[in-house]
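Preliminary data (for renewal application), zinc ion complex.
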Amino acid sequence: MKNISCNNYNIHINDWEALESYLEKKSASQTFIIVDSNTEKYCLHQFLEKTQIDVHIIKIPVGESFKTIETCQKVWAEILRKGTDRHALVINLGGGVIGDLGGFCAATYMRGISFIQIPTTLLSQVDASVGGKLGVDFLGFKNMIGLIQEPEGVFIFTDFLKTLPVDQMRSGYAELLKHGLIADRLTWKSLTENTDINNLDFESIVYQSVLIKKQVTEQDPTEKGMRKILNFGHTIGHAIESYWLDSSSPLLHGEAVAIGMVSEAFLSYRIGNISENELFDIRNAIVKMYGHHPKYVKPAEEILHIMKADKKNQKGEYRFALLESVGKACFDIPVSSEYVEESLLFYKEKL
Ligand SMILES: NC(=O)c1ccc[n+]([C@@H]2O[C@H](COP(=O)([O-])OP(=O)(O)OC[C@H]3O[C@@H](n4cnc5c(N)ncnc54)[C@H](O)[C@@H]3O)[C@@H](O)[C@H]2O)c1
Ligand SMILES: [Zn+2]
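Predicted structure:
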């Protein structure tokens, strides 16, 4: 059982009592819990057994393709139909899709009602549920519509990971690797030495990673500066993820970020921040875990085009969060499109 306190709320790890006591104190006029069919099947009964509260269940379809404004409209309509006032509570029980979308629905409904996050995937436990970024995808662009608003609490239960499919575990693991690369060399080393993803001390790994994310986001909640280092691997990763979003073989977030981290490690090397050996160590460690998939970086122009629309690339210029060294990051580094193309070629190169 571990707790991390943030400025305005707490993150509790494996602490059912903290959740019970939050719900008791809150005494919300009505409580809604958002689930998808997987979290309904694997997580909801445990939540209901432990908390014994009355909830209205709102079930949304599974997956990123439903992280849309249309799904929000259905959620808002269900809340409205119950005649909800501003003292209602929304509980997001699920992965990053539910956390981002459910949080967005709560933060905008009647200009904002309370919500808490109970993240049930590794990715959402160490990343999506911390830092208050909420939103939905729009016209094929990831997280295009949204806002930053902190929840009233984050309650992480690592036991929920037991039912998570291995590819989803691997997807979340990319964020753990990222946190190590940008902020803690020793974490990065120990994570890459691990060979069995299911046989880890998740309570302490999740704690360590959440702590890194919390420390970074707390220094810069609205992403004016420091927080941008969390985008390492994501500028290229998001573009690749967006490009394949509507295809028959979409990539999981972490899989796209894994490719992004290799390419952006190359950019870090190209501007002289890390050595060639370090670059190859990073690439080998990532490829060992995620495999090598050159087909995903084939349409370089398309990927560059998508990057241009990225909120972080202003005035057509590419700006990256890169590694300053292994375990430390820098941000707002201007990079030419030639370098970006080279970095995609580097990922594509035969091993
Ligand atoms: N807000 C942020 O700061 C932030 C950061 C990173 C990612 N994200 C967002 O998070 C999303 C990805 O999150 P995700 O990977 O958790 O996706 P997800 O919510 O789609 O969950 C992945 C899959 O796991 C299933 N699942 C969830 N919990 C389960 C459990 N305990 N057992 C079995 N199956 C379970 C889900 O039903 C789904 O099929 C993306 O939309 C991304 O943009 C947000
Ligand atoms: Zn991410």
